[in-house]
Amino acid sequence: AMALPGDLWAELPAERRIFCSVLLFSWAVYLWEAFLAHRQRRVYRTTTHVPQELGQIMDSETFEKSRLYQLDKSTFSFWSGLYSEVEGTMILLCGGIPFLWKLSGQISGRAGFGPEYEIVQSLVFLLLATLFSAVTGLPWSLYNTFVIEEKHGFNQQTLGFFFKDAIKKFVVTQCILLPVTSLLLYIIKIGGDYFFIYAWLFTLVVSLVLVTIYADYIAPLFDKFIPLPEGELKQQIETMAKSIDFPLTKVYVVEGSKRSSHSNAYFYGFFKNKRIVLFDTLLEDYSALNKEPAEGEDGENEETKSKTKNKKQGCKNEEVLAVLGHELGHWKLGHTVKNIIISQVSYYKLFF
């Protein structure tokens, strides 16, 4: 008699069933997200006129530019997502992970660390894996920055700045990731039956520390932060923060214009020490993109293109307050705390 699929599945070794389950789950998630993205892309493609609800606040030119940009981003996301899923599948099917683990053991062995130094081997494995990911992701990042972002007038980077920034990010990431991982593996190794509790508490502490020090010690390695000058905007921001009891201590402006003409705003800090950061591209008459080049200059510097011919950047004060109000709304509604709790519950279940 012909065996039923369920019988064939039951006959598979446990490790093979786990392998197939992981692969099937990965593709199921990818296909579901691709389906949702396809539905959204259809909206981008068919909605060619400003919706009635936005007619009073958005002109046709701005809407069309945004629509075409989102279409290009959607196409890019589809192909990059498909590549990522196929790459991950091939790594699993072709034994890429065991191969990399064996290679890591050979490298650590040549450095004088035998098989008993499994934490060292794990760190070498992690370094090689992140390096592989960075290299395979580089063409996609280049295309996104210098084709899509460039086409729509958002890119402000030169090729040299792009690579310098990418290398710096990789090095800083390794300086944080490798020590944290080594401590985590050591805790798991000596933790006994309750290692998952100790590992979870460790990741909780690390997460809180990183959130605390990121803006003061890590972000300044990549971008310049300066206090927002005294003036009407700062007074309005302080008034809005006070109206919702937001414990604001400082307001900074970050030089986002050296990378992109996109704009953003965010806040950080715990308890009574909250700080707000505004991208310079968000502020009218402040962004470097609005400054005319001095006589004899071509409007470009060594790191960025500073496209002074672009349409004037930035928002009016009331628009800046609207953007910031959205961000402060996350705090007022407790979204930040809720996200931390959800992520920590996920970590606990992962270790358990």
UniProtKB/TrEMBL annotation:
Residues 40-224 form the CAAX prenyl protease 1 N-terminal domain. Its main location: endoplasmic reticulum. It is a multi-pass membrane protein. It is an enzyme of class 3 (hydrolase). Pfam families: Peptidase_M48 (PF01435), Peptidase_M48_N (PF16491). Keywords: Endoplasmic reticulum, Hydrolase, Membrane, Metal-binding, Metalloprotease, Protease, Transmembrane, Transmembrane helix, Zinc. Binds 1 zinc ion per subunit. Residues 292-312 are annotated as: Disordered. GO terms for cellular component: endoplasmic reticulum membrane. Its EC number is 3.4.24.84. The chain crosses the membrane at residues 16-36, 119-143, 170-188, 194-215. It catalyses: Hydrolyzes the peptide bond -P2-(S-farnesyl or geranylgeranyl)C-P1'-P2'-P3'-COOH where P1' and P2' are amino acids with aliphatic side chains and P3' is any C-terminal residue. Zn(2+) binds at H326, H330. PANTHER family: CAAX PRENYL PROTEASE 1 (PTHR10120). Proteolytically removes the C-terminal three residues of farnesylated proteins. This is CAAX prenyl protease.
